[in-house]
Each structure stands twice: as C-alpha cells, then as structure tokens.
C-alpha cells in the first residue's frame, strides 16, 4: 500500500436491526486535503435468533446477564462482518476498523443527552481481524457535550458544502435525521423523529407478526389516511423541541404505536394486510 494512505473499514448497524453494514475506503492526506477512494460495501445479516433478542430488548426490562449475552453475540457478529470486509473489500489488507456497534439505549433527560449505550464488544473484532478498532463514537460525542446523534452529519457537511441554496440531507433509518448546511452558518443536524421504527412496528402489528416490514410499501399503498390517528401521532412533544436534539426507540417503539392506535382506533385488520408473494 502506498505510503501515507490508510485503508479503513467501517461497521454499522442501525435501529432497524437488519444486520451489519460494512464499508471500506482508502484515505490519503495531501497537504490539508483528505482524499477518499471507496473500496465498496457489503451487508452481513444478523443470525435470526440474535436479531430477535436485540429487537426484544428495548424498552423491555432486562438483566445484566442478557445484556452481557447480547454484547458478546453482537461483537462476534461484527467480527464476522469485519473479517469479510478485510477479505472481500480490502484484498486482505487494512489498517483500521471503526465500529459503531448496536445502539440499545439513548438516555435523554429534559432535552439533554446524559448517555448512550452501544453493544458489540470491540475486542471480538480486534481478535478476529488482527486490527486496531476505534469504537464508542457516540459516547465520545456525548462526553464532549454533543447529542451523540446523528454522527453522519460531519460527512454530510463535507458533501453538501458549496452546493447552491441551502442543501440538506435526510436519512430515513429507524429514526430519521437531517443535516442542513446553510451558507455562512455552522451545519445543523438532529433527529427529526421516527421513520422505519414505527413503520416496522405497524407492519408487524397489522400483519399479525407475519411481516417484519412493509415490503415495497404495499401495506401503506393499500390503506387510507386516518386523520384522527395522524393528529394523535403529530401531537408528540418531541417534534416541538428545538434542534439539535436526538431520540430513539426508547420513545418510538411498539407500545408507543399501540397507545396511539388505542386513542384513535383504525379499521385496518390483520386479515386485509397484503402478504408478501411466495
């Protein structure tokens, strides 16, 4: 590898718990400019049993033993993804792995983030890949006075800076977040609220557990807007908080959806939910 070039692997799993995304890139420092060359990406699914355990954790009561089991299982899954990334994306040569881990809890108190917990013991990644591992990214941001989320804002700002008007990037994950880069102003980034977190919960609820998500949006396309339910959902105090702010599945989860449905009943029944082909 050329001197001055660093080959880095990034590992990430979001609040939808679909699996682990791995991306690799080469970074070269030239004066005060950093150049990046993408080496590709891959997806590594969670074992079904592990995914079920992750999904069952927040906001349910749990034990230290269960958290320890999850920390190890997630760490081993991330290690498998890291090994694959080294071999499949980096031709067997890399310098560093950066692991986000799996967010299990985001502690917000009176609008201030007090702490954040990501599981996935990085020692498993280091042992499997033989590489140094950088981790606890969100906790570092919180310790510095930040929200711990969204972390993608720094990269968004680099991509959007210099574009005409007021460019913005919107990410629709389990929780949606936005980065706004206005001219002559610091970038603004925050979590706007739920995206797939409640959509996936609705798909599981209305399909009677047969579907994990609304495949191709068929369930939404077959339905109609329920004005009372929409008003109930939009009356969430979080939306009225000023940015920067952050949230997670500690607030927007299945019990939250069920409470909204109880307040504004819908005529949708599991028998009319469109099933996936095959």
UniProtKB/TrEMBL annotation:
One term of GO molecular function: ATP binding
InterPro entries: Anhydro_N_Ac-Mur_kinase
Protein origin, superkingdom: Bacteria
Keywords carried by this UniProt record: Kinase, Transferase
Transport in keyword set: no
One Pfam entry name: AnmK
BP terms from Gene Ontology: amino sugar metabolic process; peptidoglycan turnover
UniProt entry tagged with the keyword Kinase: yes
Gene3D superfamilies: 3.30.420.40
Signal peptide: none
Protein name: Anhydro-N-acetylmuramic acid kinase
Gene source species: Micromonospora lupini str. Lupac 08
């Amino acid at each position: 590898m050329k001197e001055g070039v660093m080959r880095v692997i990034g590992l990430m799993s979001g609040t939808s718990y679909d699996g682990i995304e791995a991306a690799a890139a080469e970074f070269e420092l030239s004066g005060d400019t950093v150049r990046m060359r993408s080496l590709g990406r891959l997806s590594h699914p969670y074992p079904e049993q592990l995914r079920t355990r992750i999904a069952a954790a927040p906001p349910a009561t749990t034990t230290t033993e269960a958290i320890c089991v999850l920390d190890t299982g997630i760490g081993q899954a991330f290690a498998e993804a890291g090994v694959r990334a080294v071999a499949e994306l980096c031709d067997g040569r890399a310098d560093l792995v950066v692991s986000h881990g799996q967010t299990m809890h985001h502690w917000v108190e009176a609008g201030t983030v007090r702490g954040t917990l990501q599981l996935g013991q990085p020692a498993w990644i280091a042992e499997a890949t033989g590489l140094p591992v950088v981790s606890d990214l969100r906790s570092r941001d919180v310790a510095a006075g930040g929200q711990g989320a969204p972390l993608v804002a720094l990269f968004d700002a680099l991509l959007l800076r210099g574009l005409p008007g007021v460019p913005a990037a919107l990410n629709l994950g389990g929780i949606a977040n936005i980065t706004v880069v206005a001219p002559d102003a610091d970038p603004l980034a925050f979590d706007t609220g739920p995206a797939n977190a409640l959509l996936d919960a609705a798909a599981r609820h209305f399909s009677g557990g047969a579907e994990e998500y609304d495949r191709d949006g068929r369930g939404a396309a077959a339905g109609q807007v329920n004005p009372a339910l929409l008003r109930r959902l939009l009356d969430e105090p979080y939306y009225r908080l000023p940015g920067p702010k952050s949230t997670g599945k500690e607030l927007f989860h299945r019990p939250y959806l069920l409470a909204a449905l109880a307040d504004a009943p819908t005529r949708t029944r599991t028998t009319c939910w469109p099933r996936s082909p095959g």
